[in-house]
Amino acid sequence: MQVILFTDQVNMWKEHLEQGGIYYIINGRINDRKPNFQSVHKEFEIVFSNNTIVKRCNNSFSTISFSNSFVSFEEAFQCTNGIIFDTLGILVKVNASIGDSNRKRREITLMNERCDRQTVTLWGEVAEKDGDILQNMIFEKPIVALCDVKGNFVISTTHVSSVMTNPSFEKAIALQNWHNCMKSQDKDITLMPSRLIKKARKVKIGDITHADSFDNTEDTYRKFNVKIKDIINNDDPWYLSCKKCYKKVSLVDNIATCPRCGSNVEYEERYLLKLELFDEKEHCYITLFEATKYLLGCDVTTYVRSISQKKEESKYYRKLVSSKDKEFTFLVKLDPRIGGDRPGKSLIAEELHEVGKVDAIEIADDEIKAAKTIKKTKQIEEENDASTTHKRINIERD
Predict the structure, then answer these.
(1) How does pLDDT run across 328-360, given as a tens digit for each residue?
(2) Would the pLDDT of 19 be above 50?
(3) What is the pLDDT of residue 383?
(4) At the top level of its lineage, which domain of life is listed (predicted)?
(5) If residue 317 lies in a helix (H) or strand (E), which one and from where to where?
(6) C-alpha closest to that of 163 among 117, 111, 114, 127
(7) Is 261 helix (H, G, I), strand (E, B) or coil?
(8) Is the pLDDT of residue 37 over 90?
(9) What separation in angstroms does the CA of 115 have from each of 19, 175, 189?
(10) Phi/psi at 232 (nearest 5 deg)?
(11) How does residue 368 score in pLDDT terms, banded at 50, 70 and 90?
(12) Is 281:274 a contact under the CB 8 Å cutoff?
């Protein structure tokens, strides 16, 4: 349930109310709920007045069903026109913050049990304070619950948003259990095929490279099966990147200079791999940034560390070299700039997997759907049986 405090009440109670605390609210006023807030009570909200009293409760409080209002990524996509909602996922990526003061922003990426990725933009104080906390927790891959956010394709925080890590309610616990199950099988969820590559339309290289334009298309993703003909830069598939704009920095006396952001900037290693691909009739060039991890099986920091001594002894380098002449399924996002029949055109890969792994995910997904259909049918049959039994009892009593 949403609780509204105006200026006087905020000043009175801001030092006493803590996130996660349990309180008695006395003399609050009940109002009708604001229609834009989907994540709160469907009918009412509480408004503080000058006579409102708040007392802390020391009793335990079960939050197991608290997550009933949290929507899935698919449901979030339907929340348009400024609707406020709650959602959650596994934290898999935290970008550096950009901007100053209230315009500061930071992007994070969440993942669900279907391996869907969802980008969330944190703004202002949430980007600065909560963003720093999430950055320090990234290697744990915690469950992150976001309250009172908005948007669909890209979710954004609002001035009333809050962030919780590893909350103890039903949906969060279920997601954590799934993640623990994947870890027990030595599966890195960030390398698993996403539902996006499963749903993308399958095409040939020529369907993309010879297209005149991709303007005004909602179906922006394509996948295709090709072999790797050549690895253009297998000796150095990474570069030193500015954390803010991703431009290549020059490093002199441990001071990094970015052509866009200036000198003494923060920097990090970032993948940049260029490949030549071919199928039966066509060939093209493709660039991999973060998608390189799908090919090598590790993040860029791990890769750079592994080749620091003898490159040929690195299992990740050997995996890169041995990928030549193997067949992979690539996922790309269409861009108007790659249309037209022009030489030297290059694509950017969003994701790639060995041929067969994506098909395996599709089969598994179909099996899950079939199991859910059977379960739902059985549940309906049981409900019908229970209803028939109840009617029979009433008839016999009559």
Answers:
(1) 999 998 865 554 444 445 699 999 999 987 765
(2) yes
(3) 53
(4) Eukaryota
(5) helix 315-322
(6) 127
(7) coil
(8) no
(9) 30, 11, 7
(10) -65, -40
(11) very low
(12) no
Query: From the centroid of its chain, how far is CA 322?
Result: 31
Q: What is the pTM of this model?
A: 0.72
C-alpha to C-alpha distance for 266 and 252, rounded to whole angstroms: 13
List alpha helices for 101-228, DSSP H.
Answer: 124-125, 131-137, 170-184, 195-199, 205-209
Cα–Cα distance for residue pair 264/243, rounded to 1 Å: 12
Residue 360: how many CB atoms within 10 A of its CB? 11
Question: Over 70: is that where the pLDDT of 242 sits?
Answer: yes
Cβ-contact 222, 338 below 8 angstroms = no
On average, the pLDDT of the chain sits at 83
Inter-residue contact 92 to 75 (CB < 8 Å) = no
Measured at the CA of 274, the angle between CA 109 and CA 250, to 5 degrees, comes to 75
- The Cα-based distances of 333 to 204, 211, 218, 318, 357 in angstroms read 14, 14, 11, 29, 20
What's the rounded Cα separation, in Å, for the pair 393 and 398?
9
User: Would you say 1 and 41 are in contact if contact means Cβ atoms under 8 Å apart?
Assistant: yes
Pairing of strands 283-288, 346-354: parallel
In the chain, % helix, strand, coil (3-state, to 5) comes to 35, 30, 35
Closest by Cα among 227, 196, 177 to 328? 227
Query: 3-state class of 191 per DSSP?
Result: helix
Q: Is the pLDDT of residue 325 over 90?
A: yes
Exposed/middle/buried for 286, CB within 10 Å: 0-12, 13-18, 19+? buried
Q: Are 26 and 52 in contact (CB under 8 A)?
A: yes
